Amino acid sequence: MIGMSGPILFRTARLSGRAPYPGAAALYGALFGPDRGPARLSADLQDWTRHQVAPWVLFHADHPVGVAGFRIGFGETGLELSFHFLPDVAGQGLASEFVQAALDTAVADLREDRFFAFVSAENAASIRVLDKAGFVREREAKGKHLMRLKLTPRPPASPKGQDG
User: What region, left, alpha or beta, does residue 62 occupy, with left being phi > 0 and alpha being psi -120 to 50 degrees?
Assistant: First the structure.
């Protein structure tokens, strides 16, 4: 098991997220390959240090299961959403759970309501997760879909006992 580092910054019913940290190198290697993993971890560490916005290292039952979160969308409007989970947790609904909670967190904590994601045209599972969250396909280039989401502000919750 990869050691955990730093406080929990993100939580759902089944997932907890921490800032990227050097000890997550094995997870990044498993997710992105031995060639791309170290560069991806380095970029996430730099983004976190500079902006406090970068994908979190996600844990389920105290085991690392993925890297997911936001990047500042230089060149695009809004925050870029990405999510990558180990294959052995596929089909458990963790990606859908993550995406909805992450969007709620971004709206509440980062005050952002515009999001985009790049997803491989062949990645049907991720496209379904994004479709379910309300993203729409904008265009395709180099085998990837650009999907966007603009959230509308939610009305404030009614006090208990009052009808809306």
Answer: left
